[in-house]
């Protein structure tokens, strides 16, 4: 389950819809343009975790997510273990319900930011920190230019104008395949939906950077 927790942090609720890619746009601009009309989204996910550089299935996790742009998201793993990753404009919280621990880190929009934060619509950040390729069939592949990101590569699969799947290769070569379903962009979310208060009795780990 430790590897599952590491990979859960790597994805951090990267969930959004996409529009039609224009052939005359560079990949960074095309990816950003597809996010302009999105303000919120909720849905379900299933994620398959594979071993380093292999097709050996290690675990299957399921859960739900919510997203409110810019800067708010929640990634709730409900099985086989129970975890919540939730963020506002200031902090990213990781609540491991099984271990009864809460970790808090400041939001980082630089080279160590999560994929969701980096892909929030800043074209210059995308161009500076990622090599982006637009592939046939509505697929984007992002490779960090530096070694401080939490993953080696990120592939987004887009079908019919919506994000249908995502593949993450972490720093150890492990692969996480994520499939999305029951997507809606009219959930009526507000910033208050992403407020988090640690439950009583849990172990707290607060990091300043």
UniProtKB/TrEMBL annotation:
Keywords: Chaperone, Lipoprotein, Periplasm, Protein transport, Signal, Transport. InterPro entries: LolA/LolB/LppX, OM_lipoprot_carrier_LolA-like, OM_lipoprot_carrier_LolA_Pbac. Its main location: periplasm. Signal peptide: none annotated. Coiled coil: none annotated. It is found in: Periplasm. It holds the Pfam family LolA. The keyword Transport applies. SUPFAM superfamilies: Prokaryotic lipoproteins and lipoprotein localization factors. It comes from the Bacteria. One of its GO terms (cellular component) is outer membrane-bounded periplasmic space. GO terms for biological process: lipoprotein localization to outer membrane; lipoprotein transport. Participates in the translocation of lipoproteins from the inner membrane to the outer membrane. Only forms a complex with a lipoprotein if the residue after the N-terminal Cys is not an aspartate (The Asp acts as a targeting signal to indicate that the lipoprotein should stay in the inner membrane). Belongs to the LolA family. Monomer. HAMAP family: LolA. This is Outer-membrane lipoprotein carrier protein.
